[in-house]
Design brief:
With 151 residues, the protein is an alpha+beta fold. The mean pLDDT is 94. The protein binds coenzyme A (COA). The site of coenzyme A has 18 residues, from strand 4, helix 3 and helix 4.
Length: 151
């Protein structure tokens, strides 16, 4: 039922970036600072999508194209009270479509090895686990590289 009220849209409104920053700080131990988010937006103006529920931003995703054909998801988060309602899936599906339309042949991302919830989430959406990158994060944790191939 809630599903009908979820709207996925581009980042555009005044206050969207602040909403993203608030979610980022609630969801990650090592959040992207505002300066980095702003830089990403300058470099990739259409790389951000937000999920809106009843007019409120409750999640976001950042996805970019690198080297012409390689999609890369840099971040995704859904505000904790709104999880397990399909919002993260809606964000990913929309971003996968967008990256494909921009020429991506595949998409990759890195996820903390201990983030079993996110790994499960991506596996369910058709991503595969590839290699591990040791010491990828500042605190020394390894990343698992996951990839998605368009069919
Ligand atoms: C990962 C995240 C974006 C998922 O968002 P979400 O809106 O809850 O995802 P969905 O409701 O679309 O979940 C789809 C499916 O993914 C799987 N899934 C999602 N969260 C899960 C969890 N905590 N544990 C196990 N499986 C999970 C389930 O199969 C779920 O389907 P179900 O609810 O019918 O069982 C969200 O948990 C989040 O913001 N986490 C913190 C930030 C983060 O870790 N981002 C990824 C960094 S790489």
């Amino acid at each position: 039922m809630t599903q009908q009220l979820i709207k996925i849209r581009d980042l555009k409104r005044e206050g969207d970036m602040q909403a993203i920053l608030d979610i980022e700080y609630r969801c990650f131990p090592d959040p992207y600072p505002l300066s980095l988010l702003n830089r990403l937006r300058e470099m990739h103006p259409d790389g951000f999508l937000v999920a809106e529920l009843d007019g409120e931003v409750v999640g976001y995703i950042i996805g970019v194209i690198r080297w012409g054909a390689s999609g890369h998801i840099l971040a995704i988060a859904v505000d904790p009270p709104y999880r397990r309602r399909g919002i993260g899936s809606a964000l990913i599906v929309n971003m996968l479509d967008r990256l494909k339309a921009k020429g991506a042949k595949g998409v990759r991302l890195e996820v903390r090895k201990s983030n079993f919830a996110a790994r499960q989430f991506y596996l369910g959406l058709g991503f595969n686990e590839r290699e591990e990158i040791p010491y990828y994060y500042e605190d020394g944790e390894a990343a698992v590289v996951m990839t998605y191939g368009y069919h």
